[in-house]
Amino acid sequence: MSGMTEQDAQTIGRALKQPATSSKRLPALPARGGIPSATATGTATQSASTTSGGGIDSPLTEQSRSYWPTVQAVTSDGLLQIAYQPIKSVVMKDKSGREVVFNYVQPTAS
Hints:
This protein is about 10% helix and about 25% strand. It has a domain at about 55-110. It is α+β, with helices and mostly antiparallel strands. The chain has a three-stranded antiparallel sheet with strand order 1-4-5, with no helix packed on it. The chain has a two-stranded antiparallel sheet with strand order 2-3. The chain has one helix at about 5-15, and strands at about 60-65, 70-75, 80-85, 85-95, 100-105. The protein has one helix and five strands.
């Protein structure tokens, strides 16, 4: 003997049916084409500099470098350990003879 009556089945069937579709529809939009091709033009907002600026002239030539104290790096499984000296700073000279210094932060122990 089933616990569901014919009336129960019809009630469940009505509840599961899709709601009636509305007759109102959104208005159709006119078709749009692609963006037409065009040539872009621009105007400079800064005048060209007539004096030598603070830029770096290529090529750069290394003069010296210094190192942080030795760091021990260990792999995640602990099987391999590598000792290296991280670079602290590099001093270079540019084409115009100006000194350029690259300073690097000290790495943290991992």
